[in-house]
């Protein structure tokens, strides 16, 4: 059931538990392919309108501070410079501390004056509601490649407790990824569990330093999340 009201009447709603306010649909001649993202944290799907949005949904799923995520969460209305305006942000994320994060995905080069006005209005509304606002764009290609690789192992089926325990013991001291995996057992059986632990942040690697590979240095996480 849709509801429209003042910001002060709505900011306590659990948007992450509500359906999107609009449906993402594909259409002939569309430049971006729409594809929902399956979120490991919740087992649900998040509506995305482009590959870039899907990649940012993946990064939010990977973010240890994010506990839940929904696409197209609400429509914000405000009096604009050309009359009444409305805007649907791309994502609403619920944070582990109970706070909210609103995210709009738009590269710098694609921001028109109406977009800038919409983002400014959304940022102001978030400030009043006590949420954070983030406008994000293109992603560092190395970081994106690494997180996409780990996301391929995000499903819980890759959690093998006995193997995971040995991996955490081995990587108590930092060492190259493949060398540590081979200390535990056959790489074909061990590597999926290792990548799953990296996705869950139980093990750590510098994902911005270079493309993940056999010599990437892996260590136990400083704090288990």
Largest sheet, in brief, is:
4 strands, mixed
Helical run tally: 7
**Alpha carbon gyration radius:** 20 Å
Number of strand segments: 11
Order of helices and strands: HEEHEEEEEHEHHEHHEE
Please state the overall shape, judged from the principal axes of the Cα atoms. elongated
Average residue pLDDT: 91
> Low-confidence parts, pLDDT < 50 over ≥5 residues?
none
Distance between the termini: 35 Å
* Percent range for β-strand residues: 15-25%
Percent of residues in helices comes to: 25-40%
> From the helix content, strand content and strand pairing, which structural class follows?
alpha+beta
Major sheet strand order:
3-6-7-8
Give keywords.
4-stranded mixed sheet, 3-stranded antiparallel sheet, 7 helices, 11 strands, 20% strand
Structural summary, described in words:
- By secondary structure, the protein is of the alpha+beta class.
- Helix content is 33%, strand content 20%.
- The strands form four sheets. It has a four-stranded mixed sheet with strand order 3-6-7-8, sandwiched between helices. The chain has a three-stranded antiparallel sheet with strand order 9-11-10.
- α6 packs across α7.
- The longest helix has 17 residues.
- The model has no long low-confidence stretch (mean pLDDT 91).
